Amino acid sequence: MKKNIGLFLLAVLLLSTLTSCGALKVDENTVYVQKKRKIIGASVESFDKEYYSEEELEEYVNQRVEDYAESHGRKSVKMDRFSVEDGVARLNIKYAGYEDYAEFNGVELFAGTVVQAMAAGYDFEDEFLAVTDGKLEESADKDTVTADDGYKVVILNEKVNVKVDGTVLYVSAKYTSMAGEDTVAIALPEDAVDGEELALTYIIYK
């Protein structure tokens, strides 16, 4: 069963986390987009010590973080905490920005203003739903969700919860549900794969 450790490692590393200052305590995989585009996430994975070595996993993660930091700068990524308790593995990593998160995990992630996103080539050609008090409401069009220059947006293609520093106003209609006024749950269809452009989800907030 040792050969399966590679799959587990990849699953854990797809989402990484920082829980410094107790800022993020969740029970599901979560990416937290903070101000100044810094990224915090939470990876929570089941861990069976009969099949996997805790020391081997931690060593692997440390090495991967070290390799990335050597080529992208010491502040780009840092493992903050790793623990295994009650059969659950938690991996904590801090990213300097959304670009580092995207490259390190091999997914697409953008975090910034709507204006910046459009300048970067994101077209917002999607079906949207308005969000009121943390609940999905009526549909909204592109002109509505891009109307205010002060709106911020997170764009990504992962099956994960997304928490923002603010209040969610609009979300892509497909694959999303609300887990709170500042948190969106993304559950892509079974045939969608993390990292595919077709799976992009937009989250607009202020």
Overview of the structural elements:
With 206 residues, the protein is α+β, with helices and mostly antiparallel strands. The chain folds into 2 domains: 2-105, no CATH class; 109-205, no CATH class. It is 22% helix and 35% strand. The chain has helices at residues 5-13, 54-72, 98-105, 114-119, 142-145; strands spanning 30-33, 39-46, 77-85, 88-95, 109-113, 128-132, 135-140, 152-156, 161-164, 168-172, 176-180, 183-186, 201-205. Strands 3-4-2-1-9-12-11 form a 7-stranded mixed beta sheet. The protein is globular and about 50 Å long.
Topology:
Elements: H1 5-13, E1 30-33, E2 39-46, H2 54-72, E3 77-85, E4 88-95, H3 98-105, E5 109-113, H4 114-119, E6 128-132, E7 135-140, H5 142-145, E8 152-156, E9 161-164, E10 168-172, E11 176-180, E12 183-186, E13 201-205
Parallel strand pairs: 1-9
Antiparallel strand pairs: 1-2, 2-4, 3-4, 5-8, 6-7, 6-10, 8-13, 9-12, 10-13, 11-12
